[in-house]
Here is the input.
Amino acid sequence: MTVDNSDFKPTSPVPAPSVKIAIFGVGLIGGSLALCWKGKPGYRIVGHSVNPSSVGKYVSLGVVDEGTTSLEEAARDADFIFLCVPVGRLNDYLDELAKLPLKPGCIITDVGSTKASVVAHARGLDLNGAVFLGGHPMAGSERSGVEAATIDLFENAYYVLTPTDDTPLDAVERMQELLRWTRAKVVLTDSVLHDSIVGAISHLPHLIAVGLVNQIARYNETNDLYRSLAAGGFRDITRIASSDPIVWRDILVNNKDVLLTLLDDWKAEMDRFAELLKQEDGEGISEQFRLANGFRNQLPERRKGMIQSLHECYVDVPDHPGIIGRIATELGQARINLSNLHIVESREDVPGTLRLSFKEADDLEKAVELIRGMKYEVYF
Ligand SMILES: NC(=O)C1=CN([C@@H]2O[C@H](COP(=O)(O)OP(=O)(O)OC[C@H]3O[C@@H](n4cnc5c(N)ncnc54)[C@H](O)[C@@H]3O)[C@@H](O)[C@H]2O)C=CC1
Ligand SMILES: O=C(O)C(=O)Cc1ccc(O)cc1
Here is the structure.
C-alpha cells in the first residue's frame, strides 16, 4: 500500500498542542526529519546525543528545539521517539527505552536501513504501553552528520513502514499523519521482504562501489594516472563509496545472509560477462547493455521542487577586485549551474564571504571541489 503525500499542503487547523518528538541521533537522517517538524505549530523537537557538544550543536544549528544527553529526559512524555543511530545500536536503545515509564501510546520508530532484526527484537520486548513501528526512509546520501541535514531530503521519496500483525492500526495511521510533513510516499511492507529488496537495490551497490574504488586505488599505487584520468562515469558509479564507514559496517553486517546470496549472484553475473569477453561475443555484450538500458530507463524519477531546494556553500575570499568574476567564470567553464551568488560580507582588509547557491546537489559538490582546488576555503 502506498500513500502519496507529494501534494500535502500543511495548513490549519494545527495539530493538538505540543506533540513531543524525541530524536536519538541527530545526524543526516535524524536531523533532516527534525527539520520537517521544527517550527511547525504544535510540535516540540528534542534531540538526544550521548555527547554534550553534539547536543549544543543541534540546538545552535536550529535543527531541534531542545537537546539533552539524558535518554530518560528525551523519552519522557514523548509522543514519538525516532531512533536515528547506526543499525548496530538500535536494539540497545530499545532495551534502554523498555526500562523507562514511556507515555502510553508513544510510538517508537527507527530509520535503520535494515528492518528484520530490529522488528524481531522489539517484538520480544515489553515497551510499557508504547508501540514499536519499524521505518526506513529511502532517501539519503553519502554525506553524514547534522550539517548534511536538509528539510527536503525525503520529498517524493518512499518511506517504508514495517508493521507486524501486532501493530495497532491506529499507530500506523498516526505515524503516516506525522510523516506527511516529510512529503515522502509511505509504503507498508514486511520487514524480511524489505531486507531482501533493499539489500539488492542499496546494500549490494554500496559494496560494489567500495570494492571498485579500492581495486582502482591499488592500481593507482603503481601509477597516479589512474586517479587523474578517472572521469565522470567512475565518479557516478562510486559516489556512494564515500558513505559513512560505521553506518555502513552496521548495515552490511546486519544484512549478511541476504548479501552473501546477492554477492554469489553478482559473481555469477560477472562470470557471464567474462565468458562473453572470452568468446568476443559482441552481440551478447550489446544485448546486456540493451537489457540494462531498458530496465534503468524505467526507474522512477524523484521529483523534488514542491519546496524549492537550494544547495549552498560559503567561500571565504580575499577582498580584491575580480575574484567574484573569476570564481563565476571557472564555475561556468566547468558547466556548473550556479543559481545565485551573494556577497555576505565585504569590508576593506576583511575577507569577504560569498554564498553560492545551486539547484542541484551534484553542482554544489562539483563546485566545492573546484573552488577548494583554487585554494579558497569552503564551508557549509
Ligand atoms: N545515510 C543514509 O543515506 C541513510 C541512512 N539511514 C539509516 O539512518 C541511520 C542514521 O544514519 P545517518 O543519519 O546517515 O548517519 P549519521 O552519521 O549522519 O548520524 C548518526 C547519528 O547517530 C549518532 N551515533 C553514531 N554512532 C553512535 C553510537 N555508537 N551510539 C549512539 N549514537 C551514535 C551520531 O552522533 C549521529 O547523531 C542509520 O541507521 C542508517 O542505516 C536510512 C536511510 C538513509
Ligand atoms: O546516496 C544514495 O544514493 C543512497 O543510496 C542513499 C541511501 C542510503 C541508505 C539507505 O538506507 C537509503 C538510501
